[in-house]
Amino acid sequence: MYFYCISYQAFILALRYQMDHDVTMITDASNIIKACEYLNVKYIIHTEYTELDLIKRPKCVKAEITKVLKIIGNHEIHFSHTQYAPFCFLLINKANENGQKVVFHDFEFVYDRVDRLPLNKMNLILQFKYFCIKQFYNAPIQLGMSSPGTYMICLKKDFIQDSNIHIIHDNEIYYDETLKLFRNIDLPRIDIKILFIAQTFDNEKFFERNAIEEVLNILNIEQVHIKMHPKLNSTNTLLNCKKLPDFLPVEFYFKSVNNIVISFHSASLITASKFNHLKVISLFDIVGKKNEFSKKVKNKLLEKSDNRILFPSNINELILLLNE
């Protein structure tokens, strides 16, 4: 079995499958490669191609796809990515055309299709990339929205539903299943009182900048361990926090936390809520802008955590929760 992984959620599910199957990861992500090496997991690396590379080097891309699919052969290739992974889309499309065994996991959120983007320079560039990739590869792609005002190339829902791809509906069982992995894996223990899962700080369409700065000032203390995203941010404003290795999924540290896990809207908060000894806090009501997208994100966190995630509405409530 092969599992295409460039996100931690896909990687974690693949590790869960490895408990019962022989799994090899397919990736170009340096953090996933480091995690595979640390955990002694089999993997193969494909060449990293940006969206511009897909346009400039189609012969190389097609040769790479052929090489990877030849390695997979008659084995299953599993995937879950429906956004931010154009090489995966091309790989899966070709595997499906070849009649190879393709399996899709539906646990990751599929963003809504967008037929017309607001007119600006970035969106014009995105539309150009989209048009070229679609034409060069006959790719089953569409444009979608990841958050208010942020757009990307994603996989067509119709392609997944109407092709020969086998769909595993693990959206409802993802967290229960992956908990089996986290509760059984043994990593060196670290004494962590408060674990802060950092996310992007600078999306002003999504967050209130002044509120972010106020929250970060409160969390910038030695009692806080910070887990950065390997592809986002820096610790320049959180120099007093203790930095954890960023190449492992944050869930691997939950057994070492003895008090609080805190973040903005990370899906990892849902997993943390399944550990009974943890207090789980979302900063979303303090820093998030009030819109329909934010409402959906918060409702998902509440629903999936059985209302165990706490949402302080202001800084004073946050300070009280941190000091309880």
Short descriptors:
324 residues; alpha/beta; Rossmann fold; 2 domains; six-stranded parallel sheet; five-stranded parallel sheet; 13 helices; globular
What does it look like?
- The protein has helices at residues 8-18, 30-39, 51-56, 58-72, 86-98, 121-137, 157-162, 174-184, 209-219, 268-272, 284-287, 292-304, 315-323, and strands at 2-4, 24-27, 43-45, 77-79, 102-105, 141-147, 150-155, 166-168, 192-197, 224-227, 242-243, 257-263, 279-282.
- The chain folds into two domains: 2-179, Rossmann fold, CATH 3.40.50; 187-323, Isochorismatase-like (Rossmann fold), CATH 3.40.50.
- The radius of gyration is 20 Å and the shape is globular.
- Strands 3-2-1-4-5-8 form a six-stranded parallel sheet, sandwiched between helices. The chain has a five-stranded parallel sheet with strand order 11-10-9-12-13.
- By secondary structure, it is an alpha/beta fold.
- The mean pLDDT is 88.
Give a quick rundown of the structure:
By secondary structure, the protein is α/β, with parallel strands linked by helices. The protein contains 13 helices and 13 strands.
